[in-house]
Design a protein that fits this description.
Elements: E1 2-8, E2 14-20, H1 25-28, E3 30-32, E4 37-42, H2 46-57, H3 62-72, E5 79-84, E6 90-94, E7 103-106, E8 110-115, H4 120-132, H5 138-151, E9 161-167, E10 175-179, H6 185-196, H7 200-204, H8 222-235
Antiparallel strand pairs: 1-2, 1-8, 2-9, 3-4, 4-5, 5-6, 7-8, 9-10
Amino acid sequence: MTFSLIAREADGSIGLIVASKFFACGAVVPFVSNKVAVASQAFCNPIWGTEGRARMMAGEAAEAVLDDLVARDDGRAIRQAHMMDRDGRFAAYTGSDCVDWAGHLIGDDHSVAGNMLAGAGVLEAVSEAYSKGADLPFAARLIKAMQSGEAAGGDKRGRQAAGLVIHRGQSHPWLDLRADDHADPLGELARLWEVAQERYVHFAKSMPTAERFSGLPTRAGIDADIARAEADRKAAGRLSRSHAVEFEH
C-alpha cells in the first residue's frame, strides 16, 4: 500500500520520502536520524523503525539488524522494510504475503521499496529518476523521483498521503513535510517545498545544532535573505503558492 525512497547525499544529508493510498503514511513509515534511516511499511511494525534506528546508530550493520527483526517477528510475512546504516549500507526485506506487486531495489546511494504497486516499473522509475537528478536540490530530487514512480503507476489503489523527512547531520530534522489526506499528495509536497523557499529555509540557517547550541540567536541576515528571495521570486514573475493568511494590525 506504499512506496518509499531512502537516500544519502554526498554531503551526508539523509532523506526518506513515502507515498501511499493510506492516511498519514508520513507519520508511520519514516524513522530517520542524523546518520541512519528506516522505512517500515506494508503492515507496518513501528518497532522495526525505532529499534532498527537505535541499533544502527549504535554501529550495527543494516543487514544484520534487519535479519534479526525479520526472524523475531511472527508477522514477518506481511511486513516490508528497507534501511540504511551509518556506513551507507542498505538492506531490504519484502514479506511473502505482501500484496502484489511488492518488492524492493537497492542502488549505490539509495533504496526503494513498495507494495500494492502497479508493477516493478514503479520502483525502477523512482530509482532511475533519483539517479539522474543530481543537479536538483535534495528535497526536489526526492520528490521528482517519487513523482516518476507515480507516473509509472504508483500505488495501484490510488493516492492519499505522502511525507518527506531530511536530516542534515543533526538528530532533529532539517525538513519534515507531510500531506496526510490529499488528492495529489506528492504534488502537495512539491508545493510545500516551494513555499519553504520563501521563509523557512532561511530561518533554518539560524537553528541551533549540537555543535552550536545557541544557533544564531538574532535575526541578523535572516530578514535580508527572506527579502532577497521575495524580490527574486517577484522578478521572475512567480506568485507565492503559500496558503498563509495575514491579519491587519
